[in-house]
Amino acid sequence: MDNTAFGLAPVPAKTEDHPVRLPVYMSEKRLLSAREVEVLRLLAEGLTTKAIASQLKVSFKTAACHRFRILQKLGVPSTVSAVRWAIRQGIVEP
Questions:
Q1: Domains of the chain (ranges, CATH numbers)
Q2: Most buried among 4, 45, 54, 91, using CB within 10 Å?
Q3: pLDDT digits over 34-74, tens only?
């Protein structure tokens, strides 16, 4: 799937001054990084923060921080609300 399906600009080519940036998704508040989108998809699959940390090979604290920032950026109070947002945006399927 290309970036334009989500209203995003095409990914620019890498240059020495500007490394390639991964696609991000826009919330009403801020942009979600590619890693945050990955964590959001795993949350939508029902994985716990501990399981996400294990799967991504990061610490529990790092996974929890990603989850916290997702909620903060989306301006939602819970993981359920974040998953509902992701479904509406087409990031995950119901």
A1: 30-94 (1.10.10.10)
A2: 91
A3: 899 999 999 999 999 999 999 999 999 999 999 999 999 99
